[in-house]
Amino acid sequence: MKSVTLPKYQLLKLKEWAKGSNEEICGFLFGYEKAGSSSIVECSLVKNIAPINRGSRFLISPEDYLKAEEYSNSNSLQLLGVFHSHIGASPNPSITDVQNSLPGIFYLIISIFENSQFEIQTWELQPCVKLVKTIIN
Amino acid sequence: MAKVFIPTPLRKFTEKQSEVNLDGKNVAEILEKLVERYPELKQYLFTVDGNIPPFINIFVGEQDIKNLQMTNTSVKEDTLVSIIPAIAGGSGEVSFSKGEMARYDRHITIPEFGLEGQKKLKQARVLVVGSGGLGSPLLLYLAAAGVGNIGIIDFDRVEDSNLHRQVIFGEEEIGMAKVEAARKRLLGLNPYINIEVYNERFTSKNALELVEKYDLVADGTDNFPTRYLVNDACVLKGKTNVYASIFQFEGQVSVFNLRDEHGKFGPNYRDLYEMPPPPGLVPNCAEGGVLGVLPGIIGSMQALEVIKVITGVGEPLGGKLYSFDALSFTSRIFTFHKKPSNPLNGENPIQTGLVDYEEFCGLPKQSFKEITPEEFLKLEGYGEKFQLIDVREPHEYESNNLSGELIPLGSIIENTDLIKKDRKVVLHCKMGGRSAQAIHMLEQEYGFDNLYNLKGGIEAVMALKQKEQVL
């Protein structure tokens, strides 16, 4: 099983963002990859521009996507993947997630539940859904 | 050579290249060459029909080709063509925050309704046409009930005489666009919903596109052309239309084009009234007046039917017309059925698109005065003095003319001072089209009211002269 490392303070950031929003949050994961294991160095939040139902849908603008590619390029980081939140639903990839996913990047889902409990799950399309081990350190 | 930017997820198909240089004069050629070089990309860049799939955006420079000439957008030597995947997803689950759960508690408590009903409301997309008398209670109750996505289309502004019935507005909103005032009020009432507003007329031009975006339409308009337009657009797009109307002391409610459990559509407005009444027979609120509380009652009933259709709770008024007489406080329900002669979806449907509903309802088309070639020739003899203007081009004038003053259509606006205001003015061209255009422009923009179009133009006059000579 592939693995991805997420630093504790980056996870804290994700939790804060997810807690502070009644819509799904989304953004990019930057870092680097070495011998099959990836390390996230930075998470950056972008606007969820889904036209409707942002509580259960997310969409990232092409402009934000291009900016993320440029950012990774100019900071010698890799665009490792994308994160988004699920509100009150499990962090497993939903049908909507799978229908909209592409191979070649990680998808990290952070679920937030009513009692402020969090769960995370990382996966990739390869060519079907494969879970990726998320190591917090 | 144009540069093509390959996004990270697709680089595994381009030998990790993030930029590929390719020759081509437009985006289509560039993409074709790209998949020729890296065939594995094809499944991501083209649908089976050869179109660009919805999850791929193509930018030329900083611009989306959707705002340029699509794949025909031309590409220069140093143009950067970026392939950008749409990053999307989401739980797809309808969930409620603590605040929402508390807000909708009294709905969720109803056993037949429950959380399931509330979820359906949150996911629903409803287009409300008109935010006036019926639209006010309708919108207020839909928003309060938690209908997740409400679209409002109205071109009007709030007037003082609206406030005796249009309770969504207050005095401070007089003069404001109704849709803006309504949005403000509704989001103040329920911040957990999305409101999209269209500050424009609902017309044959935008109707189909708008109706397509919603699950259900609620018609709160007060005139026949829009009523038929809403109905026809809903039937053509397969959407349910929750209808209500009011007149003086009477109100009506029905649900048109309601889908049954087998997916079959029920009757629509055309089955009830295939043709509109003669113009002027049934006045609108502005002309006929309305008791202010009546749209409150009927619009609330309309909201009830919208909620029932969305949630599937109860039996909506499909194939039934509810009628309320406020004076005698009597209600009646009439049943109506699909008519074989329905022009939209009867046995021999003859109407496959939208029509001109103003004309269909017999309203006068904007028209201008005309003069026939016969009348024209008569005038030329001893008749009233008039100015004759030829709006054709100089070369046409040279080959034959009626001795009018030459002011070509393209320069008529600069030469309005040459057009007399103290007598009748006849405009002509070759066949009557350009002169009609000129008159329309002059009447609309410059307030002329003494202009006549020569019907059939110089051609018709020449033909008539020839005929008279033969005789």
Describe this structure in words.
The complex is a heterodimer of chains A (137) and B (471). Chain A is an alpha/beta fold and 137 residues long. Helices cover 22% and strands 43% of the residues of chain A. Chain A has a single domain (3-136), classed as Cytidine Deaminase, domain 2. A 7-stranded mixed barrel of chain A has the order 1-3-2-5-6-7-8. Chain A is globular. Chain B folds into 3 domains: 2-85, Ubiquitin-like (UB roll) (Roll), CATH 3.10.20; 99-360, NAD(P)-binding Rossmann-like Domain (Rossmann fold); 369-470, Oxidized Rhodanese, domain 1 (3-Layer(aba) Sandwich). Chain B is built from 17 helices and 19 strands. In chain B, strands 9-8-7-10-11-12-13-14 form an 8-stranded mixed β-sheet, with helices on both faces. In chain B, strands 2-1-5-3-4 form a 5-stranded mixed β-sheet, with helices on one face. The termini of chain B are far apart. The chains are: A alpha/beta (137), B alpha/beta (471). Chains A and B meet through strand 4, helix 2, strand 5 and helix 3 of A and strand 5 and strand 6 of B. Strand 4 (58-60) of chain A pairs antiparallel with strand 6 (87-89) of chain B.
Please describe the structure with a list of short key phrases separated by commas or semicolons.
heterodimer; A: 137 residues; alpha/beta; Cytidine Deaminase, domain 2; seven-stranded mixed beta barrel; 43% strand; B: 471 residues; Ubiquitin-like (UB roll); Rossmann fold; Oxidized Rhodanese, domain 1; 3 domains; eight-stranded mixed sheet; five-stranded mixed sheet; globular
